[in-house]
Amino acid sequence: MDRHLDRPLRVRFAPSSTGPLHVGAARTALFNWLLARKTGGSFVVRIGDTGAARASENDDASERAVLHDLRWLGLTWDEGPDTGGPAGPYRHAERTALHREHVERLLSSGAAYERDGAMWFRTPPGTTVVHDLVKGDVAFDHASIADFALRTPAGGATYNLATAVDDAAMRIDLVLRGDEHLDDTPRQMLVARALGYEPPRYAHAGMIVDKDDANDVGALRRAGYLPQAVIEHLALLGWSPADGRETFTLEELAGLFSLERVGGSPSRFDAARLRAFNARALRALPRETYHALIAERMQRAGLLEDPIPQAADRWIETFLDAFGAEVHTLGEALEEIAKLREESVTIPALELERLRTRHVLFFLDAVSQYVDDQPELRGLPLANDLPEIAREFGLSKEDAFGAVRMALTGSHDGPPLALLFALLGHDRIMIRIGAVSSHILHGRGLEPIKYGPGGVPFETIHATPPGAQATGPGHEGS
Ligand code: GLU
Description:
single chain, mainly alpha, Rossmann fold, two-stranded parallel ribbon, 18 helices, 11 strands, elongated, binds glutamic acid
């Protein structure tokens, strides 16, 4: 590593306070945090609310949200707007006196001038080379920079002035940020040098392309992603470990991270990849943690009392047995739970048509009776009992299981019926089966409709009269 960087680094993250924490900004925060932890340095959060004075309560709310999301990701800071520190205050808006003083200095040295009420930096002829630790040397001809604003007519410091002054005053060693700021860098270096400061080192990572442009950390948290998975995905946006691994804790990352492996080309935020990471992170959770996260979400959705009744804890355990390894996010888990709690279920018309036979009708009625007779639905020997009931009505085992699942869930697949029965409970099973039976019965008579759209016959479930199994038609195809 660069000789000057082989020491505890003071780095900063300067989110704007005008919106949520976008994934691109979160990646910048993560890389800075990692550099601070890896080198035993400090991670400073500075709220970059320049321009129009921070006036609105909106700004306060988004600052709180940004800090909350950073903390949720585990990216805690050594100095910041809420914690304070020796280089404070940590909001641009609270540093206006310092910014004003520096503009005055530039005016009196002739490095800046006033025009139309604004203060401008007088860019001298020449070239500034940014020795970027990611991009390499990038030369900027001053002719293309031209004079730029330091202070608006309203008196507010511009982003370039505030950033140059604050990075110097806070003794920031290295500025790591997205490369959308590469063009600002020579301006900030010119201002720093005109003030007699040595600019920090710079590293500009390739920007993050986000197809939906809607991925902010708060939205991911609300959708039920785990911080662990978000960190893993963010870490791999523009960086990769030498061994190609994809799972790591923040602490492990801090050990693995190095600027040398940060890339300058764009990388894509990949929602599908994050979803897969999240599924893996959910499965790796200790069972009690997974349980607690589900319970908390259910409570927030009004689906569970507080304190949690014992029966509900058992229900959640069964839910985890049934769906724990299937869902990708806590949000998906809640969707499944909401579906299980519904009284009724929608069965696709064609599927209903398949069920529309006398045999299925009587069979489902018998299953409903069977459920009604059981004091406890957990751990029923369905593998044995259902085929036995089915036999009475001449249904194959596969058709029997399929019909029950379709009647209860409107779907062909899902968790084992034994778990599903316990999750649905007596009442919902009876109501759902009752609804299907009434459709079958009152729909259009019991003669199955022979032809569907395009003249393709519906394949209703066949029954083989008991005693004729050996010679009856097979069910392999159904
Ligand atoms: N507020 C700026 C941003 O969010 C900070 C840029 C910088 O780090 O200097 O992009």
